[in-house]
Structure formats: structure tokens, C-alpha cells
Amino acid sequence: xxxxxxxxxFYDHDGLRLAGRLWGAIGQAGDAxxxxxxxxxxxxxxxxxxxxxxxxxxxxxxxxPDRPVVxxxxxxxxxxxxxxxxxxxxxxxxxVDTLAGLDHLGISRAVFVGTSRGxxxxxxxxxxxxxxIAGAVFNDAGPRLEIEGLETHPRHGRRRGxxxxxxxxxxxxxxxxxxxxxGDGARRF
Length: 189
Hints:
Alpha/beta hydrolase; 7 helices; hydrolase; Rossmann fold; alpha/beta; six-stranded mixed sheet; AB_hydrolase_fold; 33% helix; hydrolase activity; AB_hydrolase_1
């Protein structure tokens, strides 16, 4: 039996019971002889889950009642089972889990919406199964993280300059020292 709007569904992958939420039904528009609209697949950030997309799903379906929206809970988040190995919590594992969820639902192509880590998962899905990506929206993600932008953020504003000084002092990226960078070069990096 298919889940009702905003009810969880479950599938098994990599020895785990994983979960997601579905609004609408996959392929429901095809009943009138037309092609079914592409589903929208929503992927949350690092510590978030499928419930984050409930309002978005409802708004999309208010405008397009035949368009299905699906959101996934990564392993160890939301209603998905926890993996016993801490090393199992990686973006590649989450991408493969998501592809298994798409297969479970019979989705071969979709428009993806990824928030933060979800955008990284979309990048890997594109590398693994490019034809699955009809389009992508990256929310709260980008190719660079600018120190100046962080300093204008309300949480960091009261500590203005701390991040720039840290970047200059550490001259590192991903824990790898970069002694060739100094001063403005380290800030730009």
C-alpha cells in the first residue's frame, strides 16, 4: 500500500531500514493519457531530515497537484536506522542510499532539491547516474565559502574579524597546512 501524503515509507538498503516521505503518487498524471510530471526529490542537510520539506511539498502540490514530491531521511537521521559503523556516514553512502530509494519508488529521473549536504549528495548522484538528474536546485550550498560572507552573518557578526584572523593564522584547508599562502593569499583561499 502506498503511503498517504506526508506519511513515511521504508526500504532496505546496505543492511539498514531507511525512510523517506512521499507527497502524491509516482506516475499518477499518466492516467489521463499524458506523461506524468517529473517528481521532485528533496535531500536535507547534514543533521536534518525529510520533515524539513513538508511545507515545500505542500506548496508545490498546491500549484501542481499531479507532481509527486519525495524526501529522504539519510541513515541515522529522521526515521532511518542508524549504522553501527561511524565510517558509514559519508556523502557517497548517502548518495547510494538515495539511489536505492529512487529505485524502490520506481523513479528513474527527477528534479532534485538539495540543502547544504543534500547538494553534495546531488553532485555524487550526477556522477553515478547522470540521466537521473533532470534538474537541480542547490540551497545553502556553493563552490566557495567566503570569509566576508560569514562575518556578516548574525551569528558571526559580533565576532567580526575572527574568521579572517583564523584563516590567516592557520593557512590551511581540510587540515593540510598551506605555508605558501600568507596574508591576503590565505584570506582569499
